[in-house]
Amino acid sequence: MTALKSTFLKLNRLILFLALSATVLTFINSFYSNYEVQKEQLILQTIEVNRAYASKLSDTTEVFIKSSQQQLSYTANSLYNSMNDDSRLQEEANRLKFQTDSFNSVVISDAFGLTHAASPETLDLVGRTLSSAGSVEALEEKKALISSPYLSTLKNLIVFLSAPIFDMNGSYLGFLGGSIYLKSPNILSKILGEHYYKNGSYIYVIDQDKQVLYHPEKSRIGSFVAENNGIDEIVANKEGGMLLTNSKGIDMLAGYSTIPSTGWVVITQSPLESTLVPLTGIMEKVILRTLPLALAVFLFIWLFARAISKPLQQLADKARSLDSPTVNEEIEKIHSWYVESLGLKRAMLSGVKLIQSQIGDLKRDAETDPLTGANNRRAFQFRLKQLTLLEVPFSILALDIDYFKRINDSYGHSMGDEVLKQQTKILNRYCREGDMVARTGGEEFVLLLKETSIEDAFLVAERLRIAISEETFDVVGNITVSIGVSHWSISKVISAEKTLSLADKALYQAKEQGRNRCIIANGPI
Ligand SMILES: Nc1nc2c(ncn2[C@@H]2O[C@H](COP(=O)(O)OP(=O)(O)OP(=O)(O)O)[C@@H](O)[C@H]2O)c(=O)[nH]1
């Protein structure tokens, strides 16, 4: 019983554990999926925003470069007949420098690289032959150029835009050049610096050699980008976005776009960490919205699981009291609402019926004489004990067929059996409710008469003796019986066993006195 109870408790806990773990797992799973989806959305969104930003800035820079080149070309075309007029050249250089704000400095050199005009004039380049990379390239190529970054004659890191000057016959006269000083405030920093925004995001520009042309950290300008796992892909593609780790080892969400005329790449990037900051708030909202549903689901699973276990528990309880006479009805009452428990209930009911009928058969077999169907000695003694314990008075008729041996001898043993059976039927006719007929020996029977006085018992014995003597038995004909009568009540000091032996004694006397008679036992009856 204890073992079953503890098993049931374990089952109950198991159900609770199952309900709880199913809910928690579902909750975690949904939270995790939600987190991952939101994170991916935020990342993709940020990369796209950065890409669009980089594209916009690259367009703006492209427009600026194109217009700067046009200004240089236009002015260069107007200088074909002024190459000997240094003051005119100086005027044009100043105009370009100060009107347009496109360049940090402007120079006009002849076909030999000798500088005729330079603005601002403080540069002190007039009269000097330029030998910087941009000047040399302009003299050699004799066409409109945008140089790679290089160190100028005055040791500035510059990008040099130039336009050739030709005379009417197409002879090369020199070039007009504008420099952008990468490390000083310049038009690039004006365009890009305006868009520098907070939360760790920043913009920078590199050329195809991965040299930094613009960066919010001035010290980085002119350096080459290394240890940046995405930079090769960025340089190779024209436009796009990606997650990369920058040179400081920080994960960045980058959008990039290439400026068509220069091949420079504008990169806008935001730290992954700051991008994901809003995720905490989002996930808090997700938890708050999901939690009530998760609790409801938990409650539902728990109650449902309890409802599943209830009929099992009740059936198990009944299985422990199968000997109860009302167990069948109790099992019938159990609400087995699903197929498996119904099957179990039906199996238990048929099992109980089978056990009960087998118990009934065994009980009958244990208490019945198989030949006559009368009770046997064991049942009779049990009944005696019952009545004495309950203090119910009774009388005993001990009955024996006279000369039964002769019947057997004359008609055979089986005919003797038939006589015993027929006689049992007669005895049963004298039984009332609570009385008992029992076969206590070969041809010895007893009749127990409940709440019957010795006088009444004697009258019954006489009537019985006469009835048997008047009965015609098959083949055998008439027989007689001798009967000894005794009585027990609580007022007597004798036991039930003694009462039986007194009846036997009286029977013996009846035999001795010639048989076919009834005798009341002597003694304290
Ligand atoms: N047919 C049959 N005979 C039985 C059975 N049990 C006992 N007997 C016989 O009953 C007979 C009893 O004989 P006895 O005890 O000598 O007594 P009796 O012949 O009846 O003579 P009295 O009792 O003295 O009148 C025996 O022959 C037993 O074999 C039984 O179950 N069936």
UniProtKB/TrEMBL annotation:
Indicate the transmembrane segments per the record. Answer: 286-305
Q: Which PROSITE patterns match?
A: GGDEF
GO biological process terms held by the UniProt record: cell adhesion involved in single-species biofilm formation; negative regulation of bacterial-type flagellum-dependent cell motility
UniProt keyword Protease present: no
Which cofactors, by name?
A: Mg(2+)
First-tier enzyme category under EC: transferase
Q: Which CDD domains match?
A: GGDEF, PDC1_HK_sensor, PDC2_MCP_like
Assigned GO CC terms:
plasma membrane
Coiled-coil intervals, chain numbering:
none
Query: Where is the protein found, in the record's own terms?
Result: Cell membrane
**Record's catalysed reaction(s):** 2 GTP = 3',3'-c-di-GMP + 2 diphosphate
Q: Which residues form the GGDEF domain?
A: 392-523
Q: What is its EC number?
A: 2.7.7.65
Q: How does it sit in the membrane?
A: Multi-pass membrane protein
Give the UniProt keywords, A-Z.
Cell membrane, Membrane, Transmembrane, Transmembrane helix
The identity of this protein, by name, is diguanylate cyclase
GO molecular function list: diguanylate cyclase activity
Source taxonomy: Bacteria, Pseudomonadati, Pseudomonadota, Gammaproteobacteria, Oceanospirillales
